[in-house]
Amino acid sequence: MHCLLCFEINLAVSLFHKSSRNLYRNFHSCNTRKSPPFKYFSEFLLWQKKKNFGKYSIVSPGNVVNHERLIPPHIRTPPYFSTGQPPAALFSVPEVKDQNSLQGMKRACHLAREILEHIGEEAKIGVTTEELDRYAHERIIEANAYPSPLNYKGFPKSVCTSVNNVVCHGIPDDRPLEDGDIINIDVTVYFEGFHGDCSKTFLVGNVDECGKKLVEVTELCLKNAIEVCKPNAPYSVIGNVVEETARNHGFTVLPAILGHGIGSYFHGPPEVWHVCNSYGGVMRPGNTFTIEPAVTQGSMELELLDDGWTVITADQARTAQCEHTVLITDSGVEILTE
Questions:
Q1: How far from 337 is each of 111, 187, 283, 327, CA to CA, in Å?
Q2: For the Peptidase M24 domain, which residue ranges apply (predicted)?
Q3: Distance between CA 198 and CA 338 in Å, rounded?
């Protein structure tokens, strides 16, 4: 029997970070992983549909409010601010940053985390994600920073808000948060020439035990992944430990959602895979990148909505995601968004 993760993944989704690698590929060799006890993949899909995903609302995105997010002239803006098109990548390999760049990264990442925590406190029953976006935009501008997602490849809002079965890149809209929702809020700021990126999944009201466990395991995946980062470690160890952690707790990692290098650019090398893989590349002191596993209760099958951004689970299972920007140091790893 073939391993359930060694099938060709048919995903034609356009994400913030478009991989240069083909998503129609195998992620690992069958002899390195233990397969679930299903003879056919169709049996596995049927089992997934019968799983109890818990009590929550299936989210259908609401109406996106077309309120223009104004940027005062004194705010330093990224290169894509006017055109929506980021410039070509500056590096073909992960950048080794100097001390000046690292200080800039630390300031941007600290601000991103501060903003994220403030927004999370506002994620309450009855609050719309549009209101969260407006609040985030105001806080970011007050800090003399720019909300990195705004107009990045045409994205219309300042943060991403992904609720329940929405995996990522949810566009803030007029849907009020409900009791029992889980919401991932993804904040990136451009501050003094550098991007800082982080996200967290917050609990709204009384979340059921299935939802709480999903969020806890996702945070554990991120924690375990960061702990294996150090100089000369292969980037592949991140995916190996994330997938093992999720599977050991009965969850599935979504292979299409990647971490990325970050700096004066929003996205760059390396590509950080969160599933078992053998891709090349090793970590060097001065590398900065995000680790952002997306974990689901169900299958890895995804759908892209007509807005060109919102990614949802095909089986309507909930997902959780959390993210840190990290720095490889001479002796280990430093979390910049903590």
A1: 8, 11, 19, 10
A2: 104-330
A3: 9
Each residue's pLDDT tens digit, 232-251: 999 999 999 999 999 999 99
Cis peptide bond prior to 270, omega within 30° of 0: yes
Say how many C-beta atoms besides its own lie within 10 A of residue 34's C-beta.
9
27-36: average pLDDT: 38
pTM for this predicted structure:
0.86
- 144 conformational bin, left if phi > 0, alpha if psi -120 to 50, beta if neither: left
On whether the CB atoms of residues 259 and 265 are closer than 8 A, the answer is no
Q: How many angstroms separate the CA atoms of 98 and 56, rounded?
A: 47
Task: Show Cβ contacts of residue 213 under 8 Å, excluding neighbours closer than 6 positions.
Answer: 249
**Which residues are part of a known binding site for substrate?**
169, 267
Burial per residue of 60-86, b for 16 or more beta-carbon CB atoms within 10 angstroms, e otherwise: ebeebbeeebebeeebeebebeeeeeb
Number of continuous H segments (helices) and E segments (strands) in the chain: 5, 15
Q: Which amino acid is at 111?
A: L
Note whether 294 and 257 are within 8 A (CB).
yes
Find where tokens 């985030």 sit: 136
Mean pLDDT for 1-17 is: 34
